[in-house]
Amino acid sequence: MLLFAGTNCPATDARPRTFCNPVDIPYRFQLPEGNYRSAADPVVVRFLDAYWLWASKSGGYWRSTNLLDWSFIAASGYPTEIWAPTVTVINGRIYLTSGSMAGTFLTDDPLSGKWTNVTEYDRSLGDPATMQDDDGRVYLYYGCNADQPLQMAELNPQTLDFVSEPVASYRADKTRHGWEVPGDTNLRESRKPWIEGSWMNKIDGRYYLQYSAPGTQFKTYGDGVCVSAKPMGPFIYQPYSPFSFKPTGFITGAGHSCTFADERGQYWHISTMTISKRHFFERRLGLFPAGVLPDGQLATSTYLGDYPQFAPGIAIDPLHDNSPHWMLLSHGKPATASSTLAAGKSQDFGVTNAFDEDVRTWWSAASGNAGEWLEVDLQHDCRIDAMQINFADQSAQTTDQLASHNYLYFIETSRDGRKWELTIDRRKDGRDAPHDYVQLAHSVTARFVRITNVQSPAGGYFSLYDLRIFGSGQGLPPPEIKNFSVTRNAGDPRKARVSWSAVTNADFYIVRYGIAPDRLFGNYQVYQTNGVAVNSLNAGTDYYFTVDSVNDTAVTRGTETIRR
């Protein structure tokens, strides 16, 4: 079954807008180090015909009318350097609850950035989430701990004081839930999972208590869900958990999230994604289509979730296909550069790092001077539709968190490596966009792409996690995977091994799995090998597996499934 063929994109400036994760906002340099950017633990609410986005330790929040273009609002009246603030519209007013004892704050005009305190708490509320029910009653769900269960309580809807004592809502069970085991591949059995990031949605009379595990620094950071018919439970763990999971790809992680509906009623899931290279809390945000299936299963689509996706309101069914069918052209392609920073004790900065689909590695020039450049050879003429320029901020250092740290650069394309055409021009109107995503107004055909530095902000060197180029290789799709096997570990059913026979013309593979043949929402991208260990399963749950083949022209989805 062929999918993502990349032939339905007209080369006009009227084509629908797209976006690409991580979310394109000016992630703030974090103090005291001042050498890495971060935002995490997001919350989005719709209020006054706009979307409002909060994240940890960001000095304020952002406003958007389309979930693509965000404007920053500096805040006052509440402690803006808090972890995981939660925001809820209650009785037509907007309330922010902090994860500390600072309490809850109120504003009727979020555009002003001014808030007033309405209550304080005598206990710390790690990762709080509040929800007003249809009957007007308000509930709090919270917890951020490796030893204690998540908690819940009822609040006074006017003052947001506690009106009931907290009770447990969910406790980790890593002996049965493989995805709750810490580690990038869920194999650190000796460590306890960090259970956190509560979120609550009431949908069609059901209460969906969402939570995160096993830790924000791991590639396997994801979200599970428990469901109840009542706001205070009892909550039943859902065997399709984690319902939000992205352990592989350019940037990984899809945990500590918020599920919300856009103006059309379509659900989205905004999550925390991990870099965690310079610092434990070096993180980004990702936005994914979500939805509830007819029988009540909550689902999130992270399939190629860091490739271009349609903007909200375009796709008919974004949960099942939100792609403009643009494939990655630049992965593993040969590259050259004006210079390369000498390797350090634990890291090299070679040009291959800029095309390896790994945000935890990066290329750096030897300076931040104007004229430093990086060039990639796509090896044949390709149709280019979009680029994502992921700046790495090597050696950047700043204490001015609210300043605009704009990148100035330009990108040229060529078919022969001699005659070049200006394709993206940010020489004068640069942006504070460490993950600058540019959808071209018109497709261009080229083999070579070169980016040249004009200015690197905060004293940093010209450096890129990856220069990602999307479009079509204009070749043949890879063959369908027909010969594959799945072995469930008899002694530990949280684990399975999926293996397959390689096919010609495939750049990599994607293993999909789920609790039914038409619900394969879990996925692992697999490079340079024909097998993968899936350690994220739930004991006592049967799964269906298949394998897709991928190249720079198309995805060919597997049509056969194996139940294990």
Model description:
The protein folds into three domains: 288 residues, Glycosyl hydrolase domain, family 43 (Tachylectin-2, Chain A), CATH 2.115.10.20; 145 residues, Galactose-binding domain-like (Jelly Rolls), CATH 2.60.120.260; 80 residues, Sandwich (Immunoglobulin-like). It is mainly beta and 564 residues long. Strand 36 and strand 37 form a beta hairpin.
**Strand tally:** 41
In the CATH classification, which architecture of the largest domain applies?
5 Propeller
Q: In this structure, how is the largest beta sheet organized?
A: 8 strands, antiparallel
The portion of residues assigned to helices is: under 10%
CATH homologous superfamily (4th level) name of the largest domain: Glycosyl hydrolase domain, family 43
Task: Write a brief structural summary.
This protein has 564 residues and is mainly β.
Question: What secondary-structure arrangement, pairings included, does this model have?
Answer:
Blueprint: E1 2-3, E2 18-19, E3 28-29, E4 37-38, E5 43-47, E6 50-54, E7 60-64, E8 71-74, E9 86-90, E10 93-97, E11 104-107, E12 116-119, E13 129-132, E14 138-142, E15 150-155, E16 167-170, E17 196-203, E18 206-213, E19 222-228, E20 236-237, E21 252-261, E22 267-274, E23 283-292, E24 298-300, E25 309-310, E26 327-328, E27 335-337, E28 363-364, E29 373-391, E30 407-414, E31 421-431, E32 435-455, E33 463-472, E34 484-488, E35 496-500, E36 508-514, E37 522-526, E38 531-534, E39 544-550, E40 555-556, E41 562-563
Antiparallel strand pairs: 1-40, 2-25, 3-4, 5-6, 6-7, 7-8, 9-10, 10-11, 11-12, 13-14, 14-15, 15-16, 17-18, 18-19, 19-20, 21-22, 22-23, 23-24, 26-33, 27-29, 28-33, 29-32, 29-33, 30-31, 30-32, 34-35, 35-38, 36-37, 36-39, 39-40, 39-41
